[in-house]
UniProtKB/TrEMBL annotation, chain A:
Name recorded for this polypeptide: Imidazolonepropionase
Superkingdom of this protein's organism: Bacteria
InterPro entries: Metal-dep_hydrolase_composite (IPR011059), Metal_Hydrolase (IPR032466)
Protein source organism: Muriicola marianensis
UniProtKB/TrEMBL annotation, chain B:
InterPro entries linked: Amidohydro-rel, Metal-dep_hydrolase_composite, Metal_Hydrolase, Metallo-dep_Hydrolase
PANTHER family (alphabetical): ALPHA-D-RIBOSE 1-METHYLPHOSPHONATE 5-TRIPHOSPHATE DIPHOSPHATASE (PTHR43135)
Sequence ranges assigned to domain Amidohydrolase-related in this UniProt record: 617-924
Entry-linked SUPFAM superfamilies: Composite domain of metallo-dependent hydrolases (SSF51338), Metallo-dependent hydrolases (SSF51556)
Protein name per UniProt: Periplasmic amidohydrolase
Keyword vocabulary terms for this entry: Signal
Signal peptide: 1-20
Organism lineage: Bacteria, Pseudomonadati, Bacteroidota, Flavobacteriia, Flavobacteriales
Residue ranges, compositional bias (Basic and acidic residues): 526-539
Coiled coil stretches, renumbered: none
Length: 429, 985
């Protein structure tokens, strides 16, 4: 018993030292700043060469090729300016180290728990969150994981003292994992080990629909006694919250959209969409945007094209859908590779500026934060970065400056500090 | 009372047996013998599959064949049975049966902690080795099962306990109903059995993997010869049994074509030729199967068609599985045509009664009837070494034979009798009249149409009145017909009739609905309809069998790829040598090698590829991969140096093809990191379409995987009972094993006798500088520790793989001379990777360490070009140095840089043609070559995509037809490959 206590204590101390944030959040913007001479990638599909970007009080005040600089000038000639990239569907700040259970706050028990909120558990000082910034990923949708309805997400920016500081949009959406049509055979009951049709699919779908129907009529009643799950769902019916539906195969997608539309859900987003390219008409008809799977995954089926996951986003864009990328199924630390997921689609023939939209302008629209974020425009938040080269390519993604709401954030991390410390050691030897 | 007399009478009749137990006292009567002959005359007799006698006589006595032929002298004391028009076959034999032998059952429940030690005393150290198990001790004759086997045509089966890796000896049983085990047991030490599957009732951890089971078998044989030499002071009843059983036939339950090859290889190493149980998929690699020279035991486990009527669900079934459904019934034919001797087993069938249909299917798919008969008679007899006793009907053999109405493989043929050791078992009454046909049935003033059809001995009946079907029940048993008819008004008529010889019409008594009785009659109008067989002939024709692809999966090639001479014209060439990056340069590939590099080269006969605007590089080498492995970790012990990844290569893994599409040509298939001393590596060339053995890099340098940190100390396991549980313990494991290996090697070199220990042999190779270590490593303390241990034992660690804190001890690594093979940017997944930084590669390189970027991941492996690009972003490596982290540097770390890794005259032509800068996220591999063979080509890939679509739709249609034709189907299944990384157990 005694031993255990010591072990716990030791773990805590070690852990505490290792997980404290390294960089101090930047103070509010105090002067007018202008970035000049840059190639500005707007995030809406357009580019402005030799652009000057002026921002003050955290907002972009002027932008264009002929704009005269004011205040402090950052010469970005030959460099590139991008809006801060946006990462949907992640549990960044909810889990620090995958294998350490004590650091895991991403998956609450229970199946239908929209009342569980990510924001209050978000660790603004996470070292993993910090490591997003040097690659240009500045905003994330912090999302509970697991279960059928995992909980409610919030959108944060990645330079904050605490979760209240971090919040960009509180309780923005509810996340629903649509039942699987296939599931692994219960081999211990003598079934084939492979994936087989889920016999409980219909029943599981009914459970979801019944929950949502009840949640809706609950809103018409007195609301007493309070049902926390129904209460938390009200935003779905008045348009204040989006429903993020995770569905991959054709049947799942068709079932989800068709049946959810009938429950009175106002704003819905398809997340995943492995077979979304087969049902683009349906998606268009109902105006459903897609947060499509990231490109750095293997094809799901042996007979799929080897580059299927690389080109799926392009297929959806070509069909006229509103599309952005998410990497919900990857480890959080991978999220810093978001720009390269988009770059991968360019290799499949998608225009570079359109690929950029998949992690900036389109993402903001889909998440409902496009009034301030996602593109570079006068009046919008000055949340952007300057890169030495093409930020969608590994070799070009070299940030010199990054700003969140006009605050010039540090591009150092726990990792850059270790790099410098050890290079210092060797250079001194 | 009467019953008793009947039984006695039968028993007396059946004493015409082989072994009259004449020294047994008899107290229930007087002793009496029956030495009469039985002569079966005028039959068509298959003495053996290749020797057929028309109008022959089979003379038997005391359970054995006395003589057979057309001119047999029939002694006066013979009971004659006239079999005119009938056929006699030797009865069938199953080599791989569980008949009568109690099989262990998997215990329910789980959650036990790991058990590393054996549970037995006085036996081999591993509980899964049980050569001392004798099936005879668990044998109880069960006539219900025997009857089912006899009805399927079997006379003798060979049974054993199907559990464990060494399974002990089998028992050969004659399936006679009467008599006792003294007569039935033909051989209680009929064969010795092995498999790769651990016992389901033993908990000892080792082996957890296929390669562990293979290593265990090898060590078992080595230990047996050491024991046999009298070098072991203690008693080992397992090894004693193994040694004793050496004289028997040796049978290996492999259960899969690839495993057949694996088993045969083990046998070859120890001078044992196993007869091997296959999996039904041998046709996929028939050349390799043939080369084993093993006799096979083949199940007819042809899969049912998938129910693909729901297109959403059909999506989930891979082409390879659809195609396998289509091809599997041709397996026996392909084996036969390639001269592979094989027997057929009931194993993997749901019941013996399925055999007839499955055989018919195999024959429809081209298996000759002679070969089919051999597979059921002479071949199993020879596998069992009992050809002089069973499998044919020459004089002196057991009188084990079948009497049938015709060709035993015809669907319409009736099996009348199955004689075992001269004892008759009636399956269907022989002289029963064929009453099939249509009749006018007259009952109580009404006339109906009665149609009797189906098998002659088990016919079905249907009754109609004015084309309306009338409910009825029908039975034909012995000479009696019973028929119950229920009219639409629910009136029931119950009829019985005895069949009269020479009379086609039926007549008899009928019990009326009102309780009275009367007579009925049925006048025959026509004989049995022949329509069905005519119809069959119309549609029959050879079934369509899809060609086998290389490998036999969706993206397999129609033919194996061959080398071409190619001139790449006007490329940007990344030489990886001092020449650097050459613009507008030609590279000539001849005979699989790089012949010339220069400008305006003459192609000669080589194919010219315009590479203008494209980049030509050496093929990518992934130092740390787990693709193409059937298993990754042998986690049953803290050292598993005895296991070999080359034993478990899977050449059908789709990730091989996808890696080629990412420009990867070579990978090191590493053992996992479950234990400090892992297994030996396989260096593979991704030769898509070749066999497992041909994937292995020629004259591979020898490697072994070691591991440190959280995995080996089981930090994230549910069971924490194995040494070591700390990094402190890890050091002690290494020191102890190396010390023992040193002592072992010294003893070996001294010339004194020593116990051959595969594990120690491997570790001694490390000490002697013949084998290189690639060590999974994370934090600086343990990295430093292993270097010091190595230095203490006088060798160097070759590679630290992962090496995420390598940057903290890069100077020490450079001094030690070890290379680093790392992730570009992974971290935060475990506690020990808290300080992992993406600058690691650049820092190590700056200190002079040879640095590679690896994947440990099937997805990342196919984008290693991009991962190399990240070393430019993180730490600012030059483009040329960055590119070397996935080509020349891993080649150096693997000691194959004299052959691959750069573009240099004389090196092997492992090349990739890219449409853009190779480290750009936008680049695509257009062609990937290994030794001048184009294993991936973007254009060909397009054609494959189309071919897949076409073949899928063909097979879907065939399966829908199959379902509509009334055949059984199975639910759609997606057989997802399990993807491995270091931690996979």
């Amino acid at each position: 018993m005694k031993n255990l206590k010591y072990i716990a204590l030791a773990l805590f101390i070690g852990f505490y030292q290792n997980t404290s944030g390294q960089q101090t959040p930047a103070p509010a913007q105090s002067e007018v700043i202008s970035v000049t001479g840059a190639t500005a990638h707007i995030g809406d599909g357009t580019v402005i060469e030799n652009c000057t970007l002026v921002f003050e009080n955290g907002k972009i005040s002027a932008l264009g090729a002929g704009v005269s600089p004011q205040g402090r000038v950052i010469n970005a000639t030959g460099k590139h300016v991008y809006p801060g990239f946006i990462a949907p569907g992640k549990s960044l700040g909810l889990i620090e180290i995958n294998a350490v259970r004590a650091s895991d706050d991403q998956d609450e028990i229970g199946s239908l728990i929209p009342h569980v909120r990510s924001l209050i558990a978000y660790n603004a000082e996470s070292k993993v969150v910090e490591s997003m910034r040097p690659n240009g990923v500045l905003i994330g949708q912090i999302t509970p994981q697991g279960g059928r309805i995992s909980g409610t997400s919030s959108i944060v920016q990645f330079d904050a003292w605490n979760w209240e500081d971090a919040a960009v949009k509180v309780d923005d959406g509810i996340h629903l994992n649509w039942p699987n049509t296939f599931r692994r055979g219960r081999w211990w009951l003598g079934e084939d080990r492979g994936y087989q049709p889920n016999k409980d699919y219909q029943e599981q779908v009914e459970e979801v629909l019944s929950f949502l129907k009840n949640a809706r009529v609950y809103g018409n009643g007195q609301g007493a006694p309070v049902n926390p799950a129904f209460e938390a769902s009200q935003g779905l019916f008045n348009g204040s919250k989006r429903l993020y539906v995770y569905a991959q195969d054709e049947k799942q997608i068709v079932d989800a959209i068709t049946s959810l539309k009938e429950t009175g859900i106002d704003k819905m987003v398809l997340v995943g969409g492995y077979h979304a390219h087969r049902v683009t008409d349906l998606l268009k008809k109902h105006n459903i945007p897609v947060l499509v799977n990231f490109t750095h995954t293997l094809p799901e089926f042996d007979d799929d094209d080897y580059d299927f996951t690389f080109k799926l986003p392009k297929m959806l864009v070509d069909a006229g859908l509103l599309v952005a990328l998410q990497n919900a199924e990857a480890s959080n630390f991978q999220t810093r590779n978001l720009p390269f997921y988009a770059g991968q689609v360019v290799g499949q023939g998608l225009d570079k500026e359109v690929a950029l939209q998949l992690i900036s302008g389109n993402s903001a629209k889909i998440l409902g934060i496009d009034d301030s974020y996602g593109t570079l425009a006068t009046g919008k938040s000055a949340t952007f970065f300057i890169s030495e080269g093409d930020a969608l390519d590994m070799r070009g993604n070299q940030l010199t400056h990054a700003f969140i709401d006009g605050r010039e954030i540090s591009l150092e991390t726990h990792q850059t500090e270790l790099w410098k410390r050890y290079m210092g050691k060797y250079n001194a030897d | 009372m009467k019953m008793k007399y009947f039984v006695l009478a039968f028993a007396w009749l059946s004493t015409c047996t082989l072994f009259s137990q004449d020294y047994f006292p008899k107290n229930d009567g007087v002793k009496a013998e029956n030495n009469n002959y039985t002569a079966l005359t005028h039959a068509r007799i298959y003495v053996s599959p290749s020797q057929v006698i028309e109008d022959g006589t089979l003379l038997i006595r005391n359970g054995k064949v006395v003589s057979v032929g057309t001119n047999v002298n029939i002694p006066a004391n013979s009971v004659r049975i006239d079999l005119k028009g009938k056929y006699i076959y030797p009865s069938f034999i199953d080599v791989y049966s569980t008949f009568g032998v109690e099989q262990p059952k998997r215990p329910s429940g789980g959650g036990r902690s790991a058990q590393y030690d054996p549970s037995r005393e006085g036996f081999y150290w591993n509980d899964h080795i049980m050569p001392e198990a004798d099936a005879i001790n668990s044998f109880t004759y069960n006539d219900k099962d025997a009857k089912a086997l006899r009805e399927a045509g079997f006379g003798v089966v060979n049974s054993h306990i199907q559990d464990g890796i060494a399974r002990g000896s089998g028992v050969l049983i004659a399936l006679r109903a009467e008599g006792n085990d003294a007569e039935r047991i033909v051989d209680d030490n009929s064969a010795q059995y092995f498999s790769f599957d651990r016992s389901i009732i033993k908990n000892q951890s080792y082996p957890t993997s296929l390669m562990g089971a293979m290593a265990l078998l090898r060590q078992m044989y080595n230990d047996a010869s050491w024991y046999q030499k009298g070098m072991v002071a203690t008693k080992d009843r397992s090894l004693e049994a193994l040694i004793e059983n050496r004289g028997m036939m040796q049978i290996f339950a492999a259960g899969d074509a690839g495993h057949v090859l694996r088993a045969d290889k083990i046998g070859d190493a120890f001078g044992v030729q196993y007869a091997i149980l296959g999996g039904g998929n041998e046709f996929e690699m028939i050349d390799e199967i043939k080369a084993t020279n093993a006799k096979l035991i083949i199940p007819l486990n042809f899969p049912d068609a998938y129910d693909v009527s729901d297109p959403f669900q059909a999506d989930y079934v891979a082409l390879k599985d659809m195609r396998y459904w289509n091809q599997a019934p041709s397996n026996p034919k392909v084996l036969a045509e390639n001269g592979v001797a094989f027997s057929i087993t009931l194993h993997d069938l749901k019941s013996p009664s399925e055999l007839k249909d499955k055989l018919a299917k195999a024959i429809t798919y081209g298996l000759s009837e002679t070969k089919a008969l051999e597979a059921l008679t002479t071949v199993p007899a020879s596998i069992l070494g009992k050809s002089d006793l069973i499998g044919s009907l020459q004089a002196g053999r057991y009188a084990n034979f079948l009497i049938t109405s015709g060709n035993v493989f015809d669907k319409e043929t009736t099996l009348y009798e199955n004689w075992v050791q001269g004892q008759k078992h009636i399956v269907n009454p022989m002289d029963q009249k064929d009453i099939r046909g249509t009749y006018d049935l007259r009952v109580s003033g009404e006339t109906y149409e009665l149609a009797i059809s189906g098998e002659p001995s088990k016919p079905k009946a249907e009754i109609k009145q004015d084309t309306v079907k009338i409910e009825s029940k029908f039975k034909y048993d012995g000479d009696w017909v019973t028929l119950t008819l229920t009219t639409p008004d629910e009136e029931v008529y119950r009829m019985t009739a005895r069949i009269t010889p020479g009379e086609d019409n039926l007549s008899g008594r009928v019990l009326l609905p009102n309780g009275g009785d009367s007579t009925f009659s049925a006048a025959k109008k026509a004989g049995p309809e022949e329509k069905s067989s005519e119809k069959k002939e119309e549609v029959a024709g050879p079934p369509v069998v899809m060609p086998v692809k290389f490998p036999n999966v969706g993206y397999g090639y129609a033919q194996r790829k061959t080398a071409e001479d190619i001139l790449f014209r006007n490329a940007t060439v990344w030489t990886g040598e001092s020449e650097g990056i050459l613009q507008n340069t030609d590279v000539l590939v001849r005979n699989g090698k790089i012949a010339r590099i220069g400008q305006n080269l003459s192609p000669g006969s080589a194919k010219v590829i315009d590479a203008t605007g494209k980049h030509l590089t050496a093929g990518i080498i992934d130092e740390h991969s787990h693709i193409a492995g059937l298993a990754i970790n042998e986690a049953g012990q803290n050292s598993s140096a005895e296991v070999k990844m080359t034993d478990v290569v899977d050449p059908k893994d789709m990730d091989l093809y996808r890696n080629l599409a990412g420009g990867v040509t070579t990978v090191q298939l590493l053992h996992g990191s479950a234990n400090p001393i892992g297994g030996r590596s396989a260096i593979l060339r991704l030769k898509w379409g070749e066999s497992a053995d041909k994937l292995i890099f020629e004259n591979s340098p020898k490697f072994i995987k070691f591991a440190l940190g959280e995995n080996v100390k089981q930090s994230n396991w549910s069971s924490n009972s194995r040494f070591p549980q700390t990094r402190m313990g890890v050091e002690q494991v290494f020191v102890n094993y190396f010390q023992r290996a040193k002592e072992y090697d010294a003893l070996k070199k001294s010339g004194k006798p020593y116990r051959y220990d595969e594990e120690m042999e491997v570790l001694a190779e490390i000490l002697n500088g013949e084998r290189f270590i690639s060590c999974h490593s994370y934090v600086q303390s343990e990295i430093n520790m292993l270097m010091k241990v190595a230095e203490k034992f006088g060798f160097r660690v070759n590679t630290f793989t992962h090496i995420l804190e390598g940057y903290k001890v890069a100077d020490k690594m450079a001094e030690h001379g070890v290379g680093g093979s790392t992730f570009s940017d992974w971290w935060a997944y475990k506690f020990e990777v808290n300080d992992a930084i993406p600058y690691n590669a650049a820092i190590m390189a700056s200190e002079g360490v040879t640095v590679a970027i690896n994947s440990d991941d099937a997805e990342m492996s196919r984008r290693l070009n991009q991962e190399a690009g990240k070393t430019i972003k993180y730490g600012g490596m030059s483009e040329e140095e960055a590119w070397k982290t996935v080509t020349l540097n891993p080649a150096k770390l693997l000691h194959i840089d004299d052959r691959v890794g750069s573009i240099k005259v004389g090196k092997e032509a492992d090349l990739v043609l890219w449409n853009a800068h190779p480290m750009s996220v936008y680049a695509k591999a257009e062609k990937t070559l290994i030794q001048g063979v184009t294993y991936f080509d973007l254009e060909e890939d397009k054609a494959l995509r189309e071919a897949i679509k076409k073949e899928r739709s063909q097979l879907v249609k065939m399966m829908i037809d199959e379902k509509n034709g009334g055949s059984k189907t199975q639910r759609p299944v997606q057989r997802k490959k399990e993807r491995f990384n270091c931690d996979s157990l």
